[in-house]
Design brief:
Blueprint lengths: L5 E6 L2 E8 L5 E4 L18 E3 L7 E7 L2 E6 L3 E10 L5 E11 L11 E3 L2 E6 L2 E5 L15 E3 L5 H4 L10
Antiparallel strand pairs: 1-2, 2-3, 3-4, 5-6, 6-7, 7-8, 9-10, 10-11, 11-12
Length: 168
Amino acid sequence: VEAMRFSELYNGTTDSRVFLYGDGSNKIIYSGLDDQGVASAEYFPDLYEALIGEANTPVTSLVRHYSKLLAFKTDSAYSIQYGTITLDSGMTTAAFYVLPVNRLLGNEAMGQAKLLENSPLTLDGKSIYQWVATSTSGNITNSETNAKRVSDRVMSTLREFTLKDTKT
């Protein structure tokens, strides 16, 4: 937990769990529930983690977008969706499902993906991308048309930046 540098709040339609990332790996961890069933940022159970994509690139940003949590890596983007799962004991517990969104574009700057007009902006490959839903649900899904480059007017300036070190 102490190696994680960044956080995002998420739990489906509410912001009641803390998701931590930023230790240089593809792992994110999330908080659990206390003995009263209330989400607590003081409790991170051992198995409450998700591995995002391949292990060779780190998670660089998490952004809550509507009822999903978008996870960006240096070369890809994923959508995390809240759901439930019934255990063998019959108990129902939270489950977070990771789905690929884009396998070419992501975010280079650690912790720097931001929402602008309810659309995530990321820094990738000397460009700024705005992620826009292409489905009627309003959620960003696995379509190559989700990422729109919006930095053409400032391209000459961006070429001088080292995007992985840029602060938004």
